[in-house]
Amino acid sequence: MAKILNVTGLFVGLAALILQFGLTLTSSMEAGRSLVGSVVFFFSFFTILTNILVVLVHMAALTGRLRFFSQAWVRAGVAVAITVVAIIYWLLLSALWQPKGLFLLCDVTLHYIAPTIYLVWWLRAGADGTLTWRHVPLFVVYPLVYSVYVLMRAPIAGEVPYPFLDVEMHGWPSVLVTMGAILLTFVFLGRVAVMADRMMAGVRPNRYDKPV
Q1: Can you give the residue range of the structural domain that contains 41?
Q2: Is the Cα dihedral 201, 65, 59, 75 positive or negative?
Q3: Do 58 and 9 meet the contact criterion of CB atoms below 8 Å apart?
Q4: Is residue 184 in a domain?
Q5: Is residue 52 within 8 Å of residue 38, measured between CB atoms?
Q6: Is 204 within 8 Å of 149 (Cβ atoms)?
Q7: Please, which residues have CB within 8 angstroms of residue 2's CB and are 6 or more apart in sequence?
Q8: Of 41, 71, 155, 165, which one's alpha carbon is 20 to 30 angstroms from that of 149?
Q9: How many structural domains does the chain have?
Q10: Is 153 inside a domain boundary?
Q11: pTM
């Protein structure tokens, strides 16, 4: 089952990312961005970056390569991040637009289907009982670096990937409060991940999905 989830997650994630890349590039260039600007725009979304990390963890588990992504704390950190992707989209972003056709397919896949596959795999085979509370701060580094990048890029690019990070629209106090709430969500889910890691490792004999 673990290997099936890995293979499914890898191909579903890759297919959705490739399709979304093509759709985004086309619509972005139609909106007036250059080719390079459109590529940068695509890779500026937390959803895209996190789904790429999900694919890399699946690939590492299947091949035994990419050793960085085989580390327990990395697998758990990606589980936390992809969970936040689903939660934030559902709470803050899903009502802001109504995608159709292939956009809807990518939207559902990247925000709900891929995260679900990954989380089921992580609970089934990715958690190995080695996490400790000292790993929780590591889970916050990724969203913190991303937030700094987005806010530094905004004055240059004249845009932000997510409306709740728009300083011009909402002001610094609102943006900082939102960022703080999201980072606290990472901390909370990080603690949940540590507890889940210990619990799941204790109820199954084969802790980790070794490459076959």
Answers
A1: 2-203
A2: positive
A3: yes
A4: yes
A5: no
A6: no
A7: 121, 124, 125, 209
A8: 71
A9: 1
A10: yes
A11: 0.91
